[in-house]
């Protein structure tokens, strides 16, 4: 437990396999045994620092202390993120690229997201009425694929919906696996990049008309901080940085349906469709259930914090799930209590399911507002526009699979739209 700078340390050659085995609990387990929000371990053959809680999160999002270039593990880059995207940029290049994303997040853009979400839920629900049962997670992936393509200006034929929904979800369903699952993710990414690159070429050759305010148009003609158009491959990576995570919101919607089922006493408040109540409920879904476990950066230059030395080049993990459940930051963190968000002060460091800090100069998720809006609209639809039953099924979720999804994927029967 001792080292030169006295940072608590897990001895041993490498603990990557334990990370895979312990999943969302890996950092929490060691935080408990070492009684520290900061500790050192070994991952991917290298020294790694793990951080938890809002105080540590403040340090992690200090751009003078941490950088992102080269931080994402290769298998994650090859499937989830793609190469050359905003996640791995720093400084001016990052600020400029991030502005390209944030320019899509105006009030009107978000209002359109909600309108499209409602429209495609309604369309899908009409079809579900004639089916014996549906698997909600699989259905919502298709709903959001439609929303995401229409919103970004990416054309989507009716007979393409299933295929594109599968392709986009294969990129996030098993991002850190090896072997066949990794191959599936890698292949899905490579085919999806080809699909989008072709569209970018057409836009640039004026062979395809796209509304100027759509992401496909804006990204195709975006000029970087050196006044250069992006490589077509990078435009494709960034368009997929919209489509893929939008489809991933299906995981949160599966957890939302689970919470509606498991906490009926918390659902009453939603029945009036009150915006604030919808907001508290989905915020608690994002806090309570595991999704993105941790994020990764690299120490930019040597510094000391809280008496601990951080050495340039050290890989550093910020525990997102653990911070959302940290007892220093949350009262009764392991209870599902949407009301807590009525009192929450909006700190950018204690509630970080999609990263913390600032949007514009930091790496906080560009799609957090979209996520919130799609979740609110979906929750409202589930509670106030549908009736359904839930047959017996396995509603448990693993704490070791990343990302985790309720085992049954939420089976629903006897679906009727409310009149
Ligand atoms: C970054 C989670 C949805 C686009 C991130 C980060 C996390 C995250 C943890 C990294 C934060 C960091 O490293 O500090 C999630 C989760 C989502 C979600 C759990 C739920 C499905 C979305 C959506 C979009 C999106 C809907 C786009 C419409 C991005 C982008 C980044 C990002 C572009 C990179 C930001 C940067 O590097 O500056 N997200 N996200 N995400 N997310 Fe999301
Ligand atoms: C997205 O598609 O970007 C959002 C949802 C993806 C969830 C997958 C979680 C896996 C995270 C692996 C660890 C990443 C370390 C940088």
From TrEMBL:
Gene3D superfamilies: Cytochrome P450. Its cofactor is heme. Keywords: Heme, Iron, Metal-binding, Monooxygenase, Oxidoreductase. Belongs to the cytochrome P450 family. It comes from Salipaludibacillus aurantiacus. The lineage of its organism: Bacteria, Bacillati, Bacillota, Bacilli, Bacillales. One of its GO terms (biological process) is sterol metabolic process. One of its GO terms (molecular function) is monooxygenase activity. Heme binds at residue 365. It comes from the Bacteria. This is Fatty-acid peroxygenase.
